[in-house]
Design brief:
- By secondary structure, this protein is an alpha/beta fold.
- It folds into 3 domains: 100 residues; 153 residues, Alpha-Beta Plaits; 260 residues, EAL domain (TIM Barrel, Alpha-Beta Barrel).
- Helix content is 53%, strand content 16%.
- It has 20 helices and 16 strands.
- The strands form 3 sheets. The protein has an 8-stranded mixed beta barrel. A 5-stranded mixed β-sheet has the order 2-3-1-6-7, sandwiched between helices.
- A hairpin with a 2-residue loop joins strand 2 and strand 3.
- The longest helix has 43 residues.
- The structure holds ligand C2E and calcium ion (CA) (2 copies).
- The site of one calcium ion has 4 residues, from strand 12.
C-alpha cells in the first residue's frame, strides 16, 4: 500500500515471454554445440598445419566454423534483443495496468479499482463477520477555485487533498479518486457502532480544510462526506456507492463541510435534486427562464420608479420552483452566469418599452462577481440590447463582499463609471462592516424584508429599520425597504423621508405582459411603443399559476 492509495499486487502474465526466452536461448545453445563439434575437428587440424605436421582443414570445414561463429553472434544478439524487448513489454504492461487501476494525478486507485475492491470485501464479509464502510468525499466549491486560480493550482489542490486524506487513512483503508473533485475511501469495518468511521470522517472534514496557499492567498476548501455501509441488503459496490452518494448530497444540502450517514429516506431528496439539475440544464437550452417584475415605489410621492427583475422558471413540471430553490443549484452547477445573462437579456428588451424614467434592478449572484470579466460582460450585454446603463441598477448581497472585496470594489467602480447604479441587497443580514460600507461606493441600501416585516409589531426590527435608515442618511446612501406587505408596514415607513419601497402591498411580481398593461394604463410606456394587446390565451393560465 502506498501512502495515498493501495496499489494492486497482481503480476503480469510472463508465460509468453518465458517461451520466447527459451527459443532464443535454444538457438544460441545449438550454435554453441555445433561450434564445439566442428571447432573440435577444425582447431586441431589448424594447430597441426601450423606445426608443419599435417595439412590444414578443408575450406568447407572452415566455412562451416565461420558460419557457426556467425550463428553464435547472431543467436547471442537476438537473445539480448529479445531480453530488451521483453523488458520493455513488461514495463508497458505494468504501466497499462497502473493506468487502468490508478488515477494519474494523485496516484490513488481509480473508480473501477475501488469498486472491484469493494465487491471483493463485500463477498468476504460473511467469512470475517464484518462489513465495509464507503465514504464518498466531495470538495465543496472546487469548480470556483479551479476557475479562479487556474487548472494547475486546481491540480495541486487535488494532490494536497489526496495527501491529507491518505495521511489519516486507517492501515487497512483504501483511497481512490473517482474523478474531478470526488474522492472515496473504503474501510473494512466490524459493523458494531459507527464511531471509528465517524471519527475518521470528522477528522477528514477538519484536516482537509486547512488553508492551501494559492497565488499568495490562503484558500480554504471544505469537503462534504457521505457514508454508507454494506449489510444483508447492500451486497454490491454499485448500491454501496450509490448510497454513499445520496448521503453526500444530503451533507451538501444541509450546509456542506460535514459528513452524513446514509438513510433510505434521503433517496427522495436526491432524486429531486437530480431532477432539478437536469431541469436547469434543459431549461437553459430551451430558454425557459423568464423575468418577472416587482414594482418599486417612491414612498413620498407614491410614484412608480422602476421594477426589480426576479427570475421565474417557465416550465409546467417545475411549477412552484422559485428562484430561492433553483438559483443556489444553478450556482453550484456553475450555470448561474448563463441563467442570469439569459434573463437579464430578456429584461433589457422588455424594459426598453417602458418610459425612460423607469429603472430596472437586477440581482447578481456572488458567484458571478468572482468572474473578473463580469462588468465587461454586463456592459457588453447593455450595448447589444441598446439599453442605457443609467437605467440599470445592479443588486448585490452583502455576502458577495465576504470573498474578495478588492475584486468587487474594482467591479463596482467600472460599472459605476459607465453609469450603472449599485445597490447593497438584503442589508442587515450579512457581515459588511461600517468601514467596508464607507469604502464601497454603493448607490443604495436595501433593508432586508425580515426587518421590515417586523415593523408590524414595532419590536426590535423597527429599531433596526430606523437605525439602517439613519445609517443610510449618514453615508448619503438612499434606502429601499423591501417586503412591504400591508398598510400597517407602509404607515410605519411613512415617517421616513426619501424612502423607496417595494413588496406585495404594491403588487406581486408579474410578467412582462402585465407590466406593459400596467404601464399603458399609467401612460408610462415609451413613446413609439404600441399599446400592448393582452397576453395570449395560451401563455396567460401558465403565468397565473406561476404568480399564485
Ligand atoms: P430578493 O432579491 O430579496 O428578492 C425579493 C424576494 O422577496 C422575491 O422573492 C420577492 O418575490 C419576495 N417578496 C417581494 N415582496 C415581498 C413581500 O411583501 N413579502 C414577502 N414575503 N416576500 C416578498 P423571489 O422572487 O422568490 O426571489 C427570491 C430571491 O431569489 C431573491 O431575493 C433573489 O435573491 C433571488 N433571485 C431572484 N431572481 C434572481 C436572479 O435573476 N439572479 C439572482 N442571482 N438571484 C435572483
Ligand atoms: Ca434583490
Ligand atoms: Ca432582497
Amino acid at each position: 500500500m502506498t501512502g495515498m492509495g493501495r496499489q494492486s499486487s497482481r503480476k503480469p502474465d510472463r508465460k509468453v515471454s518465458a517461451d520466447r526466452d527459451v527459443v532464443a536461448l535454444g538457438i544460441a545453445a545449438a550454435a554453441i554445440i555445433m561450434f564445439v563439434g566442428t571447432g573440435g575437428t577444425v582447431l586441431p587440424q589448424i594447430m597441426r598445419s601450423w606445426a608443419g605436421v599435417g595439412s590444414g582443414p578443408s575450406s568447407l570445414l572452415i566455412n562451416a566454423v565461420l558460419l557457426n561463429i556467425a550463428l553464435i553472434i547472431f543467436g547471442w544478439r537476438r537473445y539480448k534483443e529479445l531480453l530488451g524487448e521483453i523488458d520493455e513489454r513488461r514495463q508497458a504492461e505494468e504501466l497499462a495496468r497502473e493506468l487502468a487501476e490508478t488515477d494519474p494525478l494523485t496516484g490513488c486507485l481509480n473508480r473501477r479499482s475501488i469498486a472491484d475492491e469493494a465487491d471483493r470485501l463485500i463477498a468476504r464479509q460473511h467469512e470475517v463477520d464484518g462489513s465495509v464502510a464507503f465514504l464518498m468525499i466531495d470538495l465543496d466549491n472546487f469548480k470556483q477555485v479551479n476557475d479562479y486560480y487556474g487548472h494547475s493550482n486546481g491540480d495541486r489542490l487535488l494532490t494536497t487533498v489526496a495527501e491529507r486524506i491518505g495521511a489519516l487513512l486507517p492501515r487497512d483503508g483504501i483511497l481512490a479518486r473517482l474523478g474531478g473533485d470526488e474522492f472515496a475511501c473504503l474501510i473494512p469495518w466490524n459493523g458494531t457502532g459507527e464511531d471509528s468511521v465517524s471519527t475518521f470522517a470528522a477528522r477528514l472534514v477538519e484536516k482537509v480544510s486547512t488553508p492551501v496557499w494559492m497565488d499568495d492567498h490562503p484558500v480554504e476548501i471544505t469537503v462534504s462526506i457521505g457514508i454508507a455501509h454494506s449489510d444483508e441488503e447492500v451486497t454490491s459496490s454499485t448500491t454501496l456507492m450509490h448510497n454513499a452518494d445520496v448521503a453526500m448530497y444530503h451533507a451538501k444540502k444541509i450546509g456542506k463541510n460535514r459528513c452524513c450517514w446514509f438513510e433510505p429516506s434521503l433517496e427522495n431528496a436526491l432524486r429531486l435534486r437530480q431532477k432539478l439539475e437536469q431541469g436547469i440544464r434543459r431549461g437553459l437550452e430551451r430558454d425557459e427562464f423568464i423575468p418577472f417584475y416587482e414594482q418599486q415605489v417612491d414612498l413620498k410621492s407614491g410614484r412608480l420608479t422602476g421594477f426589480e427583475m426576479l427570475a421565474r422558471w417557465d416550465n409546467p413540471d417545475m411549477l412552484g420552483t422559485g428562484p430561492a430553490a433553483f438559483i443556489p443549484v444553478a450556482e453550484e452547477m456553475g450555470l448561474i452566469a448563463d441563467l442570469s445573462f439569459q434573463v437579464i437579456g430578456k429584461a433589457l428588451d422588455d424594459a426598453k418599452d417602458w418610459d425612460p424614467s423607469l429603472t430596472l434592478s437586477v440581482n447578481i449572484s456572488p458567484f458571478q462577481l468572482r468572474d473578473p470579466w463580469f462588468s465587461q460582460k454586463l456592459l457588453k450585454l447593455l450595448v447589444e440590447h441598446n439599453f442605457p446603463p443609467e437605467r440599470l441598477d445592479v443588486e448585490i448581497t452583502e455576502n458577495a463582499l465576504l470573498e474578495n472585496v478588492g475584486l468587487v470594489r474594482s467591479m463596482i467602480a467600472s460599472l459605476r463609471n459607465q453609469g450603472v447604479r449599485i445597490s447593497l441587497d438584503d442589508f442587515g443580514t450579512g457581515y459588511s462592516s461600517l468601514a467596508q460600507l464607507r469604502s464601497l461606493p454603493f448607490d443604495r441600501l436595501k433593508i432586508d424584508r425580515s426587518f421590515v416585516s417586523e415593523l408590524r409589531e414595532d419590536g426590535s426590527g423597527a429599531k433596526i429599520v430606523d437605525a439602517i435608515i439613519r445609517l443610510g442618511d449618514g453615508l448619503s446612501m438612499p434606502v429601499t425597504a423591501e417586503g412591504v406587505e400591508d398598510e400597517i408596514i407602509l404607515d410605519a415607513l411613512r415617517r421616513f423621508e426619501h424612502l423607496k419601497a417595494q413588496g406585495y402591498h404594491f403588487g406581486r411580481p408579474e410578467p412582462a405582459s402585465a407590466v406593459r398593461s400596467r404601464l399603458a394604463a399609467l401612460g408610462l410606456l415609451a413613446v413609439n411603443t404600441d399599446i400592448e394587446a393582452p397576453a395570449t390565451e395560451t401563455a396567460e393560465p401558465q403565468i397565473r399559476r406561476m404568480q399564485a
